[in-house]
Amino acid sequence: xxxxxxxxxxxxxxxxxxxxxxxxxxxxxxxxxxxxxxxxxxxxxxxxxxxxxxxxxxxxxxxxxxxxxxxxxxxxxxxxxxxxxxxxxxxxxxxxxxxxxxxxxxxxxxxxxxxxxxxxxxxxxxxxxxxxxxxxxxxxxxxxxxxxxxxxxxxxxxxxxxxxxxxxxxxxxxxxxxxxxxxxxxxxxxxxxxx
Length: 195
Fold this sequence. Notes:
By secondary structure, this protein is α+β, with helices and mostly antiparallel strands. 49% of the residues lie in helices and 16% in strands. It has eight helices and six strands; from the N terminus they run H-H-E-E-E-H-E-H-H-H-H-E-E-H.
C-alpha cells in the first residue's frame, strides 16, 4: 500500500491534505454518499433495541425477487418461539430508526438539555467555557445529515443506552454521560478545524 493509499495517523494537528479530502467528499451529494455506504452499516440501532419484555430485537433483512432489500428489527422471542409470541410486530428499520432519531434530536435541541450538558462538560474539562459547549451542542443537529452512516451509528451508540419498544410506545434511554462525551468530542473537533 502506498503512502497516499494509507489513512493518515491522527496527530492532533491540522492536516491540510486531509482537510481538502474531507471537503471534496462533503461537496458530493450526501444522498449518493449515504447510499454508497449504507450496505456497510445497515442497522443504525443494532444491539440497542429491546422489547418491553427485556428481550432483544435483532436486525433482520430480506430481499424481494428484484433484489430490493427490506430491513426490519424482529423480536427474538418471535424468532425462537413463534410469530406473535412477543406481542410486537416486526418493525421496519427505517421507521424505527427515524422515530428514535427524532426523539434524540428533540432531546438535544432542548434548551434545558443544552444548558445542563454545557454545565456538566465544563465541570469535566475546566478549560472549556459554557458558550463554546453550547455552540458545539447546537451544531450537532445541523451536521447530522452530512455524517456518514457509520459515524451516525457511532454517535448513536455513544448517546443511547437502549431503545425499549412496546406495542404502543418507543422509549429512548440515554447513557448518563453520553451527551457530555459527545459535546466534548464536538468541541475538540472544532478546535482542529480552521475558521
